[in-house]
Amino acid sequence: MRANWNLVVDKILSHANEDDLSVLFQLLLTEEERSAVSGRLQVFQTLLQGELSQRQIASEHQVSIATITRCSNYLKNMSASQREKVRKLILD
């Protein structure tokens, strides 16, 4: 079976209620996966704020340096307009 990410996105968008989304994410993601997504979001937020070193981020959010490096490289490889869109999505 081929993965259909649009189906996932459509299902998420069809539920505006936080409780429904929580149930949906518990169904779709393991606790470890939810933790990883949460950690990655925190890393992106902290990197975009630009106030902490990678070691400080790793310590504060209990994520690996490898995760921080991947997130940092992803941001560095974005165009300025993409980075601004991401900044608005996750910091506002």
Overview features:
6 helices, globular, 92 residues, mainly alpha
Element-by-element helix/strand order = HHHHHH
The whole-number mean of residue pLDDT values reads 92
Distance between the termini: 37 Å
Bin the strand percentage: under 5%
Quaternary state of this entry equals: single chain
Give the beta-strand count.
0
- Going by helix content, strand content and strand pairing, the class is mainly alpha
Q: Biggest β-sheet, characterized?
A: none
Give me the number of helical elements.
Answer: 6
Helix content: over 70%
Outline the low-pLDDT stretches.
none
Radius of gyration (Å): 15 Å
Shape: globular
Which SSEs are present, and which pair or pack?
Layout: H1 5-13, H2 18-28, H3 31-49, H4 54-61, H5 65-76, H6 80-91
Helix pairs in contact: 3-4, 3-5
In short:
With 92 residues, this protein is an all-alpha fold.
Any overview of this molecule?
This protein is mainly alpha-helical and 92 residues long. It is 77% helix and 0% strand. The protein is built from six helices and no strands. The chain has helices spanning 5-13, 18-28, 31-49, 54-61, 65-76, 80-91. Helix 3 runs antiparallel to helix 4 and helix 3 packs across helix 5 (65-76). The longest helix has 19 residues, at 31-49. The chain is globular, with a radius of gyration of 15 Å. The N and C termini lie far apart (37 Å). The mean pLDDT is 92.
